[in-house]
Design goal:
- This protein is mainly beta and about 550 residues long.
- The chain is built from eight helices and 35 strands.
- The strands form ten sheets. It has a six-stranded antiparallel β-sheet with strand order 33-30-31-32-35-34, with helices on one face. The chain has a four-stranded antiparallel β-sheet with strand order 9-10-11-12, with no helix packed on it. A four-stranded antiparallel β-sheet has the order 13-14-15-16, with no helix packed on it.
- β28 (about 410-415) and β29 form a beta hairpin.
- It is globular and about 105 Å long.
């Protein structure tokens, strides 16, 4: 791979700076970016050439100048990086910027540097992302660089580079276009009043129906190459490819989980997700990523440095308008106000869809100290509410409000025995918990036979529930990982319903699920429970 050295000057010193030297009379005056520089060694004209002091120009431009006396080398480094990750001691420096694009990057990891011929949009909203995760499951973490190569109405494309941080050796990841070409077929059929979009993934066939006026001009076929996003969730590399049916119309998308095989990342599981599920996943990923950045922005830094850090760390998560608002009033900006405790993450309590292009997310900023890192728990919690909107096919935070410590109105049921929590609206204050058991029967047997499997059933009951007016409960079935696997293999069944339980969430020991046909009689309040469940309340 092509390599280039960084700003090391020995025989030839090249300064990329516009400097104006005014020749009125001796001494020669020196201006850098319109600012007069008065140095201890004045600029001089020697044998017809104007000689200027390098240190003063470089430092005026924010660069660091070092003299290596032993090797007689002047080193000039300007710390201008567009992405960084302190955990990996990694920084990404753009090599040059032309026509709104960064062309070429120098990646620095623990003071080792290498040039890569990568590209990324120079708009800070779409700054490169650096991640450190063990996504090939070999016990060592890989450095993941996600670059935005194009964006606009109906277009958003990304590149991904997975590297060994010690050697800079790159691990290939299968291209999105090749994944779609080899695994997915799709077509659009337009009738008088509706469109039928058929998507085929292997043996699975999905048909989505839309009103014909959903799009002004329909594509001839479903497009999967104009928009795609990469992310890492639970040490798995994932790819989201929305299914595009018009210039601004989408009907869900393809979700790909990569597997490491034969020294490269290849498409493993490939699934279709409906539009709401796909979007909600993107919104959750955005907020979680933003939450991890909070500790990197010190609100006690000098104003100029703080503004620069806001752009570098929040640019890919926050809209330009909100960033500008924080820069005008730095007291509104979120971040770190002390060395300890520090904001560790955002735990999401609920996500509410406001429109097709906007969501409201409520959560808590979890603050930690070194004590909690060792012993578990948290030092403090602070409520946060965020508005997330789609801007040029990119989900960004457009509004934020912070609550005070200790005044979180969120109502959360926490179950320590099985390790989960469930967010509820304030109207459920005074809820009660009903414990029972679910029963599973061996395949081929009736529900009157002896149960083959049993497990806990926990129901959250509304405070207005009475024997005369039995409101809808929120029932949660709890399965061990083994029980869930047996259920998926149809080794046993739950009741007589033709469909099985619906997964709500999981941890390392249990699967939490909603019973089949839990609201078959449509009791009072079933619509409210449906709305609660839509917001992914179980954590």
């Amino acid at each position: 791979m092509k390599t280039k050295s960084l700003a090391v000057i020995s025989a030839l010193l090249l300064i990329c700076v516009y400097a104006a030297v005014a020749f009125a009379s001796n001494p020669v005056k020196l201006f850098v970016n319109g600012q007069e520089i008065v140095s201890d060694i004045p600029a001089q004209i020697i044998e017809g050439r104007t000689m200027v002091p390098v240190r003063w120009i470089a430092e005026a431009l924010g660069a660091e100048v070092q003299w290596d006396e032993q090797n007689r080398i002047v080193r000039i480094n300007k710390p201008y990086y567009v992405a960084s990750l302190s955990e990996a001691e990694a920084k990404l420096y753009p090599f040059e910027e032309t026509n709104g694009m960064y062309n070429g990057f120098i990646l620095e990891v623990q003071e080792n540097r290498q040039y890569f011929n990568w590209k990324n949009i120079s708009n800070p909203t779409f700054a490169p992302r650096i991640l450190l995760n063990d996504i090939n499951q070999d016990g060592n973490k890989e450095l993941i660089i996600i670059l935005t190569t194009g964006t606009g109405t109906g277009v958003h494309t990304e590149d991904i580079h997975v590297l060994n941080p010690s050697t800079f050796a790159e691990i290939e990841a299968e291209d999105p276009v090749d994944i779609i070409k080899q695994n997915v077929n799709a077509r659009i059929e337009l009738n008088e009043d509706q469109a039928a979009i058929q998507i085929i993934i292997g043996d699975e066939e999905i048909t989505v129906y839309k009103e014909k006026d959903y799009a002004v001009t329909w594509f001839d076929k479903v497009a999967f190459s104009n928009v795609y996003y990469y992310e890492v969730i639970n040490n798995e590399l994932k790819l989201s490819i929305p299914a595009q049916v018009s210039s601004a119309g989408f009907i869900g998308g393809i979700e790909v989980t990569y597997l490491f095989n034969n020294g490269r990342f290849e498409a493993g599981t490939i699934n279709y997700t409906n539009q709401d599920d796909s979007v909600r996943s993107a919104v959750v990923s955005l907020i979680e990523g933003f939450g991890k950045k909070l500790q990197t922005v010190s609100l006690l830094a000098p104003e100029a440095i703080l503004k620069e850090n806001l752009q570098k760390n929040y640019g890919g998560f926050v809209s330009p308008n909100l960033l500008a608002e924080w820069e005008r009033d730095l007291q509104k900006a979120p971040g770190r106000v002390s060395s300890s405790p520090w904001p560790d993450r955002i735990e999401i309590l609920s996500t509410e869809k406001l429109s097709d292009s906007a969501y409201e997310v409520k959560g808590e900023i979890i603050e930690m100290t070194s004590v909690e890192m060792v012993q578990g728990g948290f030092a403090a919690k602070r409520p946060i509410t965020l508005t997330v909107e789609s801007i040029e096919n990119h989900w960004l935070i457009t509004a934020m409000s912070l609550g005070g410590y200790g005044d979180n109105d969120a109502l959360v049921y926490k179950n320590l025995e099985y390790g989960f929590s469930f967010s509820l609206p304030g109207s459920w204050q005074g809820y009660s918990i009903i414990t029972d058991q679910w029963e599973g029967f061996a395949s081929g047997s009736s529900q009157y036979s002896a149960a083959a499997e049993t497990g806990p059933l926990i129901s959250i009951r509304h405070p207005l529930w009475t024997a005369q007016n039995q409101r809808q409960d929120i029932p949660i079935m709890i399965f061990t990982l083994t029980q869930w696997e047996l259920l998926q293999q149809e080794e046993f069944h739950i009741g007589a319903a033709p469909i099985g339980p619906r997964e709500l969430g999981r941890n390392t020991e249990y699967i939490f699920a909603l019973p089949p046909r839990y609201n078959y009689s449509f009791p009072t309040g079933y619509e409210e429970v449906e709305r609660i469940l839509e917001n992914n309340p179980l954590r």
